[in-house]
Structure prediction request, 645 residues.
Amino acid sequence: MKKRGFGLVLVCSFAMLTMGCRERVSPRVAPVIPDRATFFPLDEVTLLPGPLYDLQQRGKSYLLWLEPDSLLHFFRVEAGLPPKAAPYAGWESEDVWGAGPLRGGFMGYYLSGLSLMYRATGDKALLHRLEYTLSELERCREAGGDGYILAIDHGRELFKRVASGEIRTDNPTVNGSWAPLYLIDKMLRGLRLACVEAGQRQALSLMTGLADWFGFEVLDKLTDEQIQRLLVCEHGSINESFLEVYVLTGEPRYLAWAGRLNDRSMWEPLSEGRDILNGWHANTQIPKFIGFEKYAAYTGDRRFDRAAWNFWNIVTGRHSWVIGGNSTGEYFFPESDFERKVLEQGGPETCNSVNMLRLSEVLFAREPHSRIVSYYERVLLNHILAAYDPCQGMCSYFTPLRPAHYRVYGSRDRSFWCCNQSGLETPARLGRMIFARQDRDLLVNLFVPAAVRWRDRGISLEQYTSLPDSSSVMLVLHTGRDRDLSLRIRHPEWSHQTRLRLNGRALSPELDSAGYWVIRASWRGVDTLTLDFTPALSTECLPGSDRYTALLYGPYVLAGRMGRDSLPASFWRGIDNGANRVIPIPDRTRVPWHGEELASHVVKLRDEPLTFGFDGAEGSDTTIRLEPFYRIHFERYTIYWPLCD
Prediction:
């Protein structure tokens, strides 16, 4: 671990973020079931140099690279205005699977990405793009005259047929149009974040205009059964989006519409604890449960709360891979199928993990517990961080888990997949779970380089670490005059033992029921707490199988570098989501041990960068290098090792 002089940078960055802030829109409605913990605003959390910081910077670069006029092309077309620039390729304008393009699919995430990244970094160039894009959407609304601001081909005619009762749904289409409710949801979410994160009051008017158009012109003309039929098609978390309009306006009609947009086929069986997920499209379902949990919070209906918790427990316990992602080829499947699915090239979808992180955040706020953070950490460090290429910062659609396979990434201007869409906002949200507050306690959840300033109390904390290369973490706490504080630090299950020292003195703090060390001290104004972990080298079997095993070092999944044989000419794909060339699984991936034996034959080769290898016993391949998976790109890798029969 190396401490660097970030103190002045931290102070300056907070000062910069405080200057010139727009007046952000505040909630008008309080939840019936309040949160027990809250996250710090993104402008109170600063990522310090490290992998998450690097990803954040690449994400910001891509947001600034995108041309808003190209993303606005079809919005202007549908409003009867001449476009100012050609549209982007890929899903934005090309036919996909016979369902046509997902026109305007990027816009909602572009708005949310700009808003969140501006809040996180204070870069005014992001704000200028956001303001310009909102002004152009306002022109589209004025031209249309009815609040409708979507890029769907002949969208008004589509929804007029729906409102008349003509509803032919499958997944992913409504009357042959690709996911129109999903597009409404993403626009509402992007406009909401422009309000609450970037202080754009113009966005509130655009948001309520679109919500009213859909509510009055479509939802109010349909029966509940017709709406349930409409919800067969992927619709994101449109229930959450309408609920958030209610929270910002206090108008009861939005809450009523949100209730009608709760998909009964999911919340009813999951509220009873039934796992009915096998065969369902995974990312169609996950966002709904974010909406269910928020609906429970603002109505007090515990059935929706039970549905969200049961879903989270079922997905994390029965449907997830070692990297934390779930499904293969976008669909849930039973545990008995993992052994067959591991050989496919589809792997878990990045969108799924993005939404599982969002659901985890909502549930953690309701019930702060280390087990939720442990899952969040697994996904963040091993799926999300690994999904972005280190050169252009573009996101993978699938992460194949077939031994000796590889992954590809979206291109900047030729793909525009759903995972690139959610990938626009993810780099801005990396600081969300690192710290939290519970009453007057400060919680440290994730051990990554970052700093937080609790602005209301004048308290700040800097966290320095170079995990996984070093096993130490140093926290520097500045309490100033306000020293009424308990520090709660998550006790990670991946450390054999941990030595804690406060200002050089050994500590043995109590461990609370939520899995946090509780440190109460006579704070001196500036205090240094050091944590020395002993990360465990462990194995994790493939769910439902004893024929494949994965390796972990602490929270990091280890993967073997398997070379560059038969790789594609380019790793950045266009309209397809990565039709990877499959090669036979090499014999060198097979290890001559079973289960936990595997870990005993792994030796550390060096600390920086962290590298392991096999010890050569029983003929194992000593040329294979094992590293944290997120560091391996543009070559083949093995995560699940086939075991000898």
